[in-house]
């Protein structure tokens, strides 16, 4: 039998890291229990400023279209269909259920009381230093359903 060689790259595989969210949730619980709520927010802020620096740069360059593209791709990869509405000064992102929260609840993982900060704090950090700001208008702890608003900061 002839030897068969298969070459694969990570990019050949479907994007999937659902259990990451469960580990993140447990980490957030640990931080809150041992260091308090502000430690959770500080951790997420530092992470987002570093990890999402390229997205912040695109936001500065092209405006809210960068965020709309990011959220569409991110939620699509996670199996959700966000609804967006964008003008030059506002972007609304509405999600019926957060895929991470749904996955954790389905598998009986603990969902941190502060898991919503992975949306609120991270979005605020992405916008930091740009002409835009973020606010979490609505969030359901049970499903992760959310309405996120990004807007041009007043001059």
> How can the largest sheet be summarized?
4 strands, antiparallel
Which topology does CATH recognise?
Muramoyl-pentapeptide Carboxypeptidase, domain 2
Give the structural class.
Answer: alpha+beta
Number of helices: 6
Mean pLDDT across every amino acid position: 93
Helix proportion range: 40-55%
CATH class: Alpha Beta
Rounded to the nearest angstrom, the distance between the terminal CA atoms is 72 Å
In the CATH hierarchy, the architecture is 2-Layer Sandwich
Indicate how many domains the architecture comprises: 1
Number of strands: 4
Q: Could you state the order of secondary-structure elements as H and E?
A: HHHHEEHHEE
Overall form: globular
Low-confidence stretches: none
Query: In percent terms, what proportion of residues is strand?
Result: 15-25%
Which sequence of strands runs across the widest sheet? 1-2-4-3
Gyration radius from CA atoms, angstroms: 17 Å
Please outline what is shown here:
The chain is α+β, with helices and mostly antiparallel strands.
Could you characterize what this model shows?
The chain is α+β, with helices and mostly antiparallel strands and about 160 residues long. It has a single domain (about 20-150), classed as Muramoyl-pentapeptide Carboxypeptidase, domain 2 (2-Layer Sandwich). Helix content is about 50%, strand content about 15%. It has a four-stranded antiparallel sheet with strand order 1-2-4-3. A hairpin with a 3-residue loop joins strand 1 and strand 2 (about 90-95). Helix 2 packs across helix 6 and helix 3 (about 55-60) crosses helix 4. The longest helix has 18 residues, at about 20-35. It is globular and about 70 Å long.
């Amino acid at each position: 039998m002839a030897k068969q060689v298969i070459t694969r790259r990570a990019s050949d595989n479907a994007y999937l890291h659902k259990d990451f969210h469960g580990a993140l949730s447990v980490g957030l619980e640990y931080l809150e229990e041992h260091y308090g709520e502000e430690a959770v927010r500080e951790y997420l802020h530092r992470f987002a400023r570093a990890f999402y620096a390229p997205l912040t740069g695109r936001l500065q360059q092209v405006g809210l279209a960068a965020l709309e593209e990011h959220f569409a791709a991110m939620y699509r990869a996670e199996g959700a269909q966000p609804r967006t509405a964008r003008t030059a000064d506002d972007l609304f992102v509405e999600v019926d259920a957060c895929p991470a929260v749904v996955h954790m609840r389905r598998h009986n993982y603990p969902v941190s009381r502060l898991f919503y900060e992975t949306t609120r704090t991270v979005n605020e950090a992405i916008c930091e230093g740009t002409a835009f700001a973020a606010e979490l208008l609505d969030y359901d702890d049970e499903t992760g359903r959310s309405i996120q608003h990004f807007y041009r900061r007043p001059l």
